[in-house]
Amino acid sequence: MSPLALGLVICLVTVLVLATGTPVAFALGIVAFGFIALFDGWYGVMATADTLFAGLEDFTLVSIPMFVMMGAAVASSRAGSDLYEALARWLHRLPGSLAVANIGACALFAALTGSSPATCAAIGKMGIPEMRRRGYNTGLATGAIAAGGTLGILIPPSITMILYGIASESSIGRLFLAGVMPGLMLTGLFSAWALFVSWRQGPLADADRRYSLRERLAALPRVLPFVVVIVGVVWALYGGVATPSEAAGVGAMLCLLLVALVYRVWRWRELWPIFRDTLKESVMILMIIATSILFGYMLASLYVTQALAEWIAVLEVNRWVLLGWINLLLLVAGCFLPPAAIILMTTPIMLPIVTSAGFDPIWFGVMLTVNMELGLITPPVGLNLYVINGIAPDVPLTTILKGSLPFMLLMVLGMVLLCLFPGIATWLPDTLMGPALV
Amino acid sequence: MERYAAAVSWLSRLSGYVAAGLILLAVLVVCQMLFVRYALGQSAIWQNEFVTFSLVAATFLGAPYVLLLRGHVNVELVPLWLGPRAKRVLGLAASLIGLVFCVLVFITSIEWWWEAWAGGWETSSVWRARLWIPYLSLPVGSLLLSLQYVAEVWAIATGRVPPFGALPGGAEA
Amino acid sequence: LAAFGAAEAATTLKASHQFPGGKGDVRDEMVQMIAREVAAADVGLEIRVYPGASLVKAKEQWQAMLKGQIDITSFPLDYASGRHAAFGATLMPGLVKNHAHARRLNESPFMAEIKKEIEEAGVVVLADAWLAGGFGSKDKCILEPDDVQGLKARSAGATFAEMWAGAGASIINIPSNEVYSALQTGVAEATDTSSGSFVSFRLYEQLKCLTAPGENALWFMYEPVLMSKRSFDRLDEKQREALMEAAKKAEDYFAEESRKLDEELVATFEKAGVEVVTMTPEQAEMWREVARRTSYKSFAEQVPNGQELIDMALEVE
Ligand code: NA
Ligand code: NA
């Protein structure tokens, strides 16, 4: 059998096993195991343990549980609602001020955590009930949080980018910087849409609520701890204290201190959920990493990866058509799988194709991340949708989806803008870190 | 069998506590390393490897507990379409596939761990960490995963728990 | 059917290394050359090269070769020093002075001892290769041990780290792909690595001064092309001959090119405006003094015939 035909068989088998509902990590593992046993025999199989362990034995991965912990710590406290409250007081004069405040709070919170569901949960817990109480359209209220929450993986730190950086061997510090401007751009686009919808709807009940300057100033100290954490991490990162992987440790520590000192979370009963959620999300990701490395080893060993790259190189399609197909494929994958699983499974195969077509791997990492953001709010598997379902169980999924649709289109617009003006992603890292290493 | 399931979930939970402890320890050690390096200007030799191994061990030791919490993400497209009977059959199949994988990992990891222990394998760094210690997490974790899966297969087969858990998508985050 | 039979009879070997593939890297070229020569010999032997650690991770290659995942690897032998402590001597400061010295060392009793241990582990050496390297600093040039006092340094190997620490530097342990940004942000202020890595990681953009290998280098690393004995024994007489002949050619090619790596290093760094210096024999000897009480000493403690090995290496003229 030719490597390409073999690749097709492997692909089919993998889809079948995934379709049974077996956890992604174990599904990838059993398929890899099966094909290794079939083609390499017992010797290949006996190397499984070493491959699984070595796959995780990488200091760069250390940042994943730590950035997850940052989010879990802050999301477990009242910190999210404080952030949101402060912004609401300052923005109350705008039409749709609450929606804008929520999106802004999501963007700020995103700078504290590497995961989107954490952002969504932390801000949405307070934001959604508040917006609905003040007469906001339910679709806009839930859509703004679902979409705003996805900024968690675009605005640094980002677990998605760490995984991509590891898989593509590109600089994680550079990827983080590349996410800043696109993140601000999407925040701006989302806010503009919220303003537009609210303006068209006419004045709402919340227009009556006036905050005095005193009330507004009183909300400021609540934002201070966030600023301290963000400044602390940025100082560690760029002040010669820590590498990007190590800075995550500083962030996790600062967030634990923040919730302990400011929000008085120190009883075991309150602390355990933080550690449990950290464990749950990071183990889920890390187990998929381990078995996807086994899977990748199987593909490379059977020469499937190389044959596929060679095949595509010969095709000679237009590079933008190629990029379109890749994004479509990612979008479909995004409907069914969380970002971590997609990146780990596809990057080793996709990256050689993308770079040989002349695209910048850092820029592509940003495109990929925006694409993964979309997947977080598409059914049937959209992590942010479940979070919102948990916060507002009475809102039907179709309402959330209808409310999210304009934001999804804005993300697609964002991707088009990134294609037209790649500088949106590459300017900041190039300016601060010098031209890219190629 | 009730007793077995209770005992296994107790073990998985214990293993989960250990794993969470390892993650917290890793955070503390990273901060300690930065302090030693930046504030004291001294060498930091062992921390890097210690943290890496802690988190690998946390992953394998935490996996059984995450299985108990149904936190390993899966694709639930087909199960969503199926009726209760077919859903149960598919749920059993999915759990059996998971079980087979975990048992295979356990079998291969035993020999691998033994080689590292008997051969006195160390890392090639200054610290010379003895590899059998972190390696132990893989056989232990995969054994617990297998035991946990046996309990799950039994619980689904006897209708004690619904297949694929209650939450859509299996994991909340 | 006959053609099919012939294709079936062909043996395919997997060769793995960690260096970029198809981009003119000398170490990649060395392995590719063996693959090409063997194919040209037409003995029913095919070698598939997996560059850039695309099959197994760099440090796992030794284990993967013993387990049969790969057959051939171009491998920094020091990576396996956690399993065979004696291999630590192949990335030991001050044992090899320059490329001519390295070639003489290959035939010495010291290397005979190392190769004996390699063979006992079930591995065949196809081709010898020594890579030179140097020191780089963000601050003043590193020539004498005193120059590194208080410097935050990242080292490529354990034996060098011990020497740096002995000279008063503080050692930081970070992965190689983070060295560039660590130097940039000041997490690290100095580093040692091979000539090839200095260039491929573009460290000239961050460093102020480079201590190039020159004639009195301290930094040399043994990075042979290895093959698992089990795979080797499976080949027939003609295949073995063709393989060894190809390996000999690759070895000669590499000996020639590795010198060019150093020349390229100096040229690239000078072009980037980095100050380039080399050590005098006296300065190298000062470092060897530091090594005697640090890396040599702990090597002698860890390895049963450690002191002997070091003395044997130091005796080579
Ligand atoms: Na973020
Ligand atoms: Na989705």
From TrEMBL, chain A:
Q: Does the keyword Transport apply?
A: yes
Q: Give Gene Ontology CC terms.
A: plasma membrane
**Which residue numbers delimit the TRAP C4-dicarboxylate transport system permease DctM subunit domain?**
14-424
Mind telling me which InterPro entries this protein's record contains?
DctM (IPR010656), TRAP_DctM (IPR004681)
Q: Where in the cell is it found?
A: Cell inner membrane
Q: What is its main location?
A: membrane
This protein's name: TRAP transporter large permease protein
Q: What species does this protein belong to?
A: Marinimicrococcus flavescens
From TrEMBL, chain B:
How does it sit in the bilayer?
Answer: Multi-pass membrane protein
* GO CC terms of this entry: plasma membrane
Signal peptide extent: none
Q: Does the keyword Cell cycle apply?
A: no
A GO molecular-function descriptor: transmembrane transporter activity
Domain of life where this protein originates: Bacteria
Tripartite ATP-independent periplasmic transporters DctQ component domain residues: 27-156
**Compartments reported by the entry:** Cell inner membrane
A biological process (GO) annotation for this entry? C4-dicarboxylate transport
Please provide the record's keywords in A-Z order: Cell inner membrane, Cell membrane, Membrane, Transmembrane, Transmembrane helix, Transport
- Ranges that cross the membrane: 17-38, 50-69, 89-114, 135-157
What does the record note on quaternary structure?
A: The complex comprises the extracytoplasmic solute receptor protein and the two transmembrane proteins.
Q: What does this protein do?
A: Part of the tripartite ATP-independent periplasmic (TRAP) transport system.
PANTHER family associated with the record: 2,3-DIKETO-L-GULONATE TRAP TRANSPORTER SMALL PERMEASE PROTEIN YIAM (PTHR35011)
UniProt similarity note: Belongs to the TRAP transporter small permease family.
Name of the protein in its database record: TRAP transporter small permease protein
Upper classification of the source organism reads: Bacteria, Pseudomonadati, Pseudomonadota, Alphaproteobacteria, Geminicoccales
